[in-house]
Amino acid sequence: MNNKGQALIFFVLILPLLLLLAAYIVDNTYIAYNTNKLNQINKLIVKDAVINKMTKEEIKEYVEKNDKDIKIDFMFVSSDKVELTLKKEIKSLFGSIIGKDHYTLTSKESFDYTNDDFPPYQ
After folding, report:
1. How many helices (H) and strands (E) does the chain have?
2. pTM
3. Mean pLDDT, residues 41-58 taken together
């Protein structure tokens, strides 16, 4: 028997599923990379704000220096607590296939002096 035609048909039917799987993996990796980057920037800003006793305006400038696309969603600075929530929208690479043009990433970080947290970088 000749099975060459059956293998070709099977490959043509499986190919779209393999492409969708590859697109899903690439998009999720891209999201994870940008989420990690946003979290690291947030940690850096909160630690430096604690050490240098930065004001809200200085923190806003610091966020702009790190990434222009990051928006400050929430900021609380007092003598005993620093809290910062950042948001960033990234374009999807293959999400337009399913109708998702962009993803919104959020990062929350806080430092509380009253919990006996030691200032970082000492």
Report:
1. 2, 3
2. 0.81
3. 90
